[in-house]
Amino acid sequence: MMIQVDTDLPAPRIEIFADKDALCASVAERLVELLRSTVEADGVAHVALTGGGAGIGTLAAVSELLRGDASAAPDWRAVHFWWGDERLLPAGDAERNAQQAHEALLEELIREHGLPEANVHPMAAAEQTGSPDEGAERYAAELASHAAAGAALPEFAVVLLGVGPDGHVASLFPGRDALATTGRSTVGEHDSPKPPPARISLTFDAIHSARRVWTVVAGADKAEAVGRAFEEATPVEEIPAKKARGAEETIWHVDAAAAERL
To answer: Before 196, cis peptide (omega within 30)?
Structure first.
């Protein structure tokens, strides 16, 4: 299995921040502005969220921004939230990305800022699907139901991604068959090397369709993966994050600790 990086997509650029707090605050501010401008231009904005410390930290920073001044926020009625991947655990489990996002931001948006609950699109929980493959098919159908005619998924203004110490993004792990999945927007993972084993993920095809891909990466344990992602000789099979690119823009937001090997 040899997977190539799509060099037709814009090359990523790197922005380095002093620490995780500075990183999350900056990405939060940019995210709010991007969603506002996208809603104003297109009437709707779709964003795919990520989990992890920096991903959830970014959502918490959005919440803090809104508590300070919500005047620059988008019309949340026109924003749709999706996920890049999910752990196939029971609904409400503290390890689910959707649950963490609800606690960090989404509950507040629904309660105080007019976000319709119908605009939040979590991936299936364990009790809602029989397998990762079935869950992936269900999410693909949900994505397609919000897409333009003839498209498989809505146009994401941005897909947010974390990067694991092993270089995975979403639930696309090194050496797994899911890395080579094409022609589909979602894929099931049965044997993740990181617990729990059962997961659902967007594919690289779906990630590449987004206008923008922003990674948010913090911590010294990510430094090797970040460094290798920017080495030309690194195979995608070893560091999948190398292949994460958006159609118009890719930015790696990295704190100083995670940037040590750049």
So the answer is: yes
